Structures are given as structure tokens and as C-alpha cells.
Amino acid sequence: MNIDLNKLLDQVTQSANLIGNYLKNEQSKLKDSAIEMKGSRDYVSYVDMEAEKQLVNKLKNFIPDAGFLTEEDTIEYEEKEYTWIIDPLDGTSNYVHGITPYTVSIALMHKKEIILGVVYDPMADEMFTAIKNEKAKLNNNTITVSDKAEMQNSFIGFGIPYNVTKGAQSILNNTFRHFGNASFRLKGSAAIEICYVACGRYDAYFHSDLSAWDVAAGAFILQQAGGKVTDFKKGHDYIFGRELVATNGHIHEILMENIINA
Fold it and tell me: Does the pLDDT of residue 221 top 50, yes or no?
């Protein structure tokens, strides 16, 4: 199957925009009684479910035989040549508490390779996009990573996993030790924070206990913006391996040595 990625990107961004508008409209209506707990600090609501159903139905029209990998399991996963990896509401904890950011995250995988990524922040109206062999963009303007090459005065995003293992606690402890050298931020949406690295707002971002739909689109966008993504062992298992270090490339080894593997 030959796919026109530019045409497909237009279709996907339109879909992301529609889902984003749905999220905005529903946030103020959301009641505590409509929110459930999937685990400690892990929320889900009818909005997650409905947004996922809507997005799946839209994407089905673009590649009818594609498979889906989704967070809320509104469609059964089947291994296909093309697979959509989606999270129509990344940042659910922020969302249910009435704050931002939260995002729509959409990636398309061909066999084992990501070839399209879209991350949309509906409240900021920022659409991060990338397709294979082209530069990443923010609202159709080309973006690139920062040139920061040292920890001193760097600006770094991170996340705290739901399950704080001994390894995760060690990384957090290492992070705290560098609070005097760098600025750290925790926003609560991995997809958009990886994109902040892509456009140079952050110099780096790291997190563990992540799922493929949290990172697939953002990581691809970052790579197309000139950045670097690895797992905690400096390998390539960052989409399905549940751990990710995303940087401008210049600070990658320094971050690994001082925080991840210190």
C-alpha cells in the first residue's frame, strides 16, 4: 500500500483538532462521579473512552486495514502492516483536576518504524507534527532542538512513575541533587513535554513506567527535529520498553551520567 504522508498528515491533524475541541468542551462539565481510578494516581473518565472511540473511527477512514494500539482498549489490538498508536487524552490527571497541559497524541507505525507523529495541545492551540524524511513542525513552522551542552542552567522536564521502584527512586534522588545546577519541571503530559524538547523549550526530558501511546508520537517528532531518544540503557527500546530519555542530543550523555545512571 502506497500512502501519501503529506495528505495523511492533513487528515490526522484535522482529526486531532476535532478531538481537542471535544476535550476542551467536556473538561468544565466533568464531575467527580464520572472519574474512576485505574490505580494509584491513575485516572480515567468517560471522556477518555469517548475521545478514543471518536479518534479510532476517524482514523479507520484513512487506512481501513490498519491496526490500533490504544490505552483504553476500545478496539482490540491486531498486528497489522500499519498500526496507529494513539492516546486522545495524554495528561488525564491534569484534565480531571481542571488544569493543563493535556494533549492528543497520534503516531502511525509501518511495520516496526514510526512514520508519522502528531501531538496537539488544544488549550495552547499548538500542533506538533512530523512525517518520515521531513523536518518536525509546530503549527506548520519548522522547529529544532536547543544547543545547550551542559547541565549548568539547563531546563529539564521529568515525570514521576505511578510505581516508584528502587531504580526510579534512585533517579529521583539524583535529580534532586542537581536542583541547584539546572531548572526542572514536571508538567504531567509526556507527549507534550517531549515536544517541548523538540522545539527547544526544554533541553531534555526523562520518565519511566510509560506506555507506547505516551511517547511514540512525541519521540518521533523530537527525532525529526534533530533530537535524540534512548531508553535508560542507551538503547532503542524506548517506545515499548517503558522508559525514555529525550534530549537535544548535546546533553544526552551528560544527563545519562549525572541522573539516569549516576
Answer: yes
